[in-house]
């Protein structure tokens, strides 16, 4: 499919206020960040409190920057009540989209808030147009491709789907496929799919 050329959206991770301000001041079109209540793949990093959301969203939106919250870990059934409450707070704060790994979380978000954008995290391991078609059926609006794909592979996927694609251009590259790393858990009991990666590959 031939797509009209568009300037790429530049996104930056931002775990605290200093990072948000630096990203905004240096031209980021959007920032993504986790919350300190869990459900994000960088649980051990600095993250925002849920109570920070209103001021944070107001700040970035005033500057024309979008805000994306990472909910990109696997969720257990016992956590769904807590997760539902969190999604409602995220939606009420005016977040532009959430990034998810878990198909069940994607369905939960769509059921709770039909207007809240859903992006597939790189943790969802989407490596082909066929995978992406399934993601689209879940109401996912953008796909962050697995980090292991080559430029040629990305070009092939682009020719086979119209959904917006996102790629990492800088950052850590796991020795396993994105979202499929079991090394940290097998070596130390810390699951990368639960935000506890020990970064054994480094």
Characterize the structure shown.
With 202 residues, the protein is an alpha/beta fold. Helix content is 34%, strand content 13%. The chain is built from 7 helices and 7 strands, in the order βαβαβαβαβαβαβα. It has a 7-stranded parallel β-sheet. α6 links the parallel β6 and β7 (165-166). α3 crosses α4 (103-112).
Fraction of helical residues: 25-40%
Main sheet strand line-up: 1-2-3-4-5-6-7
The number of distinct helices, counting runs of at least 4 residues, comes to 7
Shape: globular
Question: Mean of residue pLDDT?
Answer: 87
What is the strand content?
A: 5-15%
Q: Give the ordered list of helices and strands.
A: EHEHEHEHEHEHEH
Termini separation (Å)? 38 Å
| CA-atom Rg in angstroms | 16 Å
Major beta sheet summary: 7 strands, parallel
- Structural category is alpha/beta
Task: Please tally the β strands and state the result.
Answer: 7
Low-confidence stretches: none
Short description:
Helices cover 34% and strands 13% of the residues.
Output the keywords.
single chain; 202 residues; alpha/beta; 7-stranded parallel sheet; 7 strands; 34% helix; globular
What is this structure's SSE topology?
Blueprint: E1 11-13, H1 17-25, E2 30-33, H2 53-62, E3 66-71, H3 80-93, E4 97-100, H4 103-112, E5 117-120, H5 129-137, E6 142-144, H6 151-160, E7 165-166, H7 183-188
Parallel strand pairs: 1-2, 2-3, 3-4, 4-5, 5-6, 6-7
Helix pairs in contact: 3-4
């Amino acid at each position: 499919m031939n797509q009209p050329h568009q300037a790429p959206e530049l996104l930056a991770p931002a775990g605290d206020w200093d990072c948000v301000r630096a990203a905004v001041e240096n031209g980021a079109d959007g920032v993504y960040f986790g919350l300190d209540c869990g459900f994000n793949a960088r649980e051990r990093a600095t993250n925002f409190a849920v109570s920070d959301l209103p001021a944070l969203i107001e700040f970035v939106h005033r500057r024309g920057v979008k805000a994306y919250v990472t909910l990109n870990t696997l969720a257990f059934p016992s956590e769904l009540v807590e997760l539902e409450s969190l999604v409602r707070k995220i939606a009420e704060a005016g977040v532009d989209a959430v990034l998810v790994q878990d198909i069940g979380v994607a369905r939960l978000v769509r059921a709770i808030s039909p207007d809240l954008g859903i992006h597939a995290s790189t943790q969802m391991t989407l490596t082909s147009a066929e995978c992406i078609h399934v993601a689209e059926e879940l109401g996912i609006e953008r796909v962050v491709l697995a980090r292991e794909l080559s430029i040629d592979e990305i070009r092939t996927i682009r020719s086979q789907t119209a959904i917006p694609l996102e790629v990492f251009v800088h950052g850590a590259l796991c020795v396993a496929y994105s979202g499929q790393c079991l090394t940290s858990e097998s070596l130390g009991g810390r699951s990368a799919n639960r935000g506890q990666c020990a970064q054994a590959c480094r």
